[in-house]
Write a structure and sequence with these properties.
By secondary structure, the protein is an all-alpha fold. About 80% of the residues lie in helices and about 0% in strands. The longest helix has 20 residues.
């Protein structure tokens, strides 16, 4: 399914004007950068376990 979406996006971008294409690619790049900056679930769970093991209260 992901490959189909990527292929559709590539075909769509090939047939649009260059200005719209550049704005779309910049937007996709910023979304990609945002996703890369999100914390990973493993790290959050590990931090929670460390806090609980130390005996400190979360309230």
């Amino acid at each position: 399914m992901r490959n189909f979406v990527i292929a559709a996006l590539v075909i769509f971008l090939l047939y649009t004007n260059s200005t719209f294409r550049s704005y779309t690619l910049e937007g996709l790049q910023s979304i990609t950068n945002f996703i890369k900056e999100l914390p990973k679930e493993e790290k959050i769970e590990k931090d929670t376990e460390t806090i609980l093991e130390s005996g400190s209260s979360t309230y």
